[in-house]
Specification:
By secondary structure, the protein is α/β, with parallel strands linked by helices. Helices cover 32% and strands 28% of the residues. The chain is built from 9 helices and 11 strands. Strands 5-1-2-6-7-8-9-10-11 form a 9-stranded mixed sheet. The chain has a two-stranded antiparallel sheet with strand order 3-4. It starts with a strand and ends with a strand. The model has no long low-confidence stretch (mean pLDDT 95). The structure holds iron/sulfur cluster.
């Protein structure tokens, strides 16, 4: 069995504790307006033209986004970084795209990583059948779980899917006792109005539990915008400004009122 992965990030420090290797799995059922990984959305390998510079000369080089890895190959990559992972109390993170879109591979990879002694994390949009979460819970130490919008119609408009399944999976994970970090992308004009921030804070207060370890506020950025042309996907965020550091600081203080640790960024 193999999983389709579009990027492997070594020495990652934003996807869970310590130094980690993050595997970005290809395919996502959402299509968020602000997504900075458009190459992660299609569940198939894609060829793209990349511009490479040699001195002043530019060359168009064909590249493939998406390669197949077996769970055994995942372990081989981890073994090479083992010393950094162990020293820093890090681990492995499966991100995307949406890792839960390849549930059999994810389960097998997590099972193998866990039995080799690695701390395991899954970074998810939450949009998957509950049975997929039930099967990976025993092999996952930490869930990084996105909340994008609590208003269902707005969620549907800006991500392409309803948030009902997502919110019910979040409750399932909160009850599972596994560590959870809630990740909130801060998207100006889309989910950062006073009313929505208030409902987010109230939701967190109501559902606060011992295993809810942290809130990560992820400021919108434009880093992925240039990729959209390459993947022939329309970019819908033109004109949206990135939130200022002082605005992010203000939001951090606001969410700290829940009593949960808040971090700006991953
Ligand atoms: S859930 Fe994540 S990977 Fe999927 S479209 Fe949204 S931002 Fe992109």
């Amino acid at each position: 069995m193999k999983g389709l992965i579009f990027s492997v990030k070594r020495y990652s420090i934003h996807d869970g504790p310590g130094i980690r290797v993050t595997f970005f799995m290809k395919g996502c059922p959402l299509s968020c307006w602000w997504c900075h990984n458009p190459e992660g959305i299609s569940p198939d390998p894609e060829s793209v033209e990349q511009i490479e510079k040699v001195g002043e000369m530019e060359f168009i080089v064909p590249k493939q986004a998406g390669e197949y890895y077996s769970p055994g190959e995942i372990l081989v990559i981890l073994e090479k970084e083992k010393i950094f992972i162990e020293e820093s109390k890090g681990g492995v993170t499966f991100s995307g795209g949406e890792p839960m879109l390849q549930p059999e591979f994810l389960l097998e990879a997590l099972r193998k990583c866990k039995s080799a002694g690695y701390h395991t994390a899954v970074d998810t949009s939450g949009y998957s059948q509950p049975e997929n979460f039930h099967s990976i819970i025993p092999f996952t130490d930490l869930f990084l779980f996105d909340i994008k919008h609590l208003d269902n119609l707005k969620h549907l408009n800006f991500t392409g899917v309803s948030n009902e399944l997502i919110m019910s999976n979040l409750r399932l994970l909160l009850e599972s006792g596994k560590d959870i970090m809630i990740r909130i992308p801060v998207i100006p004009g889309i989910n950062d109005d006073k009313e929505h921030l208030e409902s987010l804070r109230d939701f967190i207060l109501k559902n606060k539990s011992r295993n809810l370890k942290k809130i990560n506020l992820l400021p919108y950025h434009r880093i992925g915008s240039s990729k959209y042309k390459k993947f022939q996907v329309p970019y819908r965020m033109d004109g949206v400004e990135v939130p200022s550091p002082s605005r992010m600081k203000e939001l951090k203080q606001y969410f700290e009122e829940t009593g949960i640790k808040v971090k700006i960024g991953g």
